[in-house]
Amino acid sequence: MKNTNKNRGFTLFIAIIITGALVLIAAGIGSLATRHAQIASSGQSSQHAFYAADTGMECALYWDVKNPAGYSAFSTSTPTSPITCNNKNIVVSPVVSGTPPRNGTTTISFDFTPADPYCVVVTIAKWYVGGTPKTKIESKGYNTCSASNPRRVERAVRAQY
Is the pTM of this model over 0.85? Predict the structure, then answer.
């Protein structure tokens, strides 16, 4: 009786091939899951930056249109008044140019600390066209106050009237 050893080790070879294929599939699924988590995190950061910008816009619109003093807190012709945004007291000091009626730009910024790490920078520009006052508000929101953070996201909201 002759013993053939041609198929010897074949089962081990097939087991190694199947195990390797399963490891590759698992690595691919893990990589895909990691990328999806990064995308979701980026989307959340973008949303936080947008909400910060929206908060800055709402604050500027309130103090420009509904100021309890009866005039815009960012006016270039009347005295400025301190404002409060997100429980932060902000002193308004517009940069004014020209003779009356004057053009001016005001920049305010505030953060959401200690509860949240978000920041906002709002620029309010006022100018006159044919005696009619015009206003442009640009609010830039950030998901973090750290300018050196590589994952910092900026979203902006603009209004002009």
Answer: no
